[in-house]
Description:
alpha+beta; D-amino Acid Aminotransferase, Chain A, domain 1; D-amino Acid Aminotransferase, Chain A, domain 2; 10-stranded mixed sheet; 6-stranded antiparallel sheet; about 30% helix
Amino acid sequence: MIQYYHINGELTPVAEAQLHVTDLAIMRGYGVFDYFRALGGRALFVEDYVRRFFNSASLLQLEVPCSQEELKERIQTLLDQNGEEKAGIRLILTGGYTTDSYTPVKPNLLILQHLYASYPAEAYERGIKMLTYDYRRELPVAKTINYVTGIRIQKWLKENGADAVLYYDNDTIKESDRSNFFLIDQSGKIITPKEEVLPGITRMKVIEVARELGFTVEERAVKLEEVFEAKEAFMTSSIKGVLPVVSMDGKAIGSGQVGENSRQLGLGFEALVERYIMAKV
Ligand SMILES: *Cc1c(COP(=O)(O)O)cnc(C)c1O
């Protein structure tokens, strides 16, 4: 059981963890966050996530009230205190207790720990179905707490038998609501959008793994039509790892089955995770 969160520098029992209602996160949805896994009581790729969290904060002109080193120490303190082998860690930085309901003040820094629920195993076996949706994320490089569109269209996705969305803008694909997107073309090249997407940590690690495995990886603008000509496709995120995609807008991608390359990249990524955790213990 998760007993503690780390709120504004203090280990705080979960039942006592609270923010005042005037927080700009409530008033205006102003804040940033990050999310990553912890395995064996160690935070996975923590330096990458903490760096991104600071970058998101700075894009919203919010100052994290401690150093990156201090934040990593607080995360480890929380993990040690809760003593769970597997967990998810969520960092949140809000606009703080505004007095005019608009101007950011002293940000609140929350470190939450959740029990980690793995994504359902059968999704990796059968692959998932996506629908395209015309949407441009605001400040795409920042991991803000604004998921209005992603949440609002969940019902529409379900009603249409889909598992996830692929955002595109001007015929150029971007990413899913909480995951990055990759395709593998008929020649076996791996292609993923580069501009105006969240710089996913899983995305970055999977690109590393792919190059180690001898794949050619292109990071560039990707046209919507390329998705329909692809041999394979997959999404990446901290929660999902490498999740194969087998259909887009009701049309099969490649054979309509989970591709061999996607599977290999998924295993390669999990091996990298193992190596990281083993090196840390
Ligand atoms: C969190 C997120 C991702 C995935 O990033 P990871 O660091 O791999 O978890 C991709 N796109 C969006 C919009 C996200 O919020």
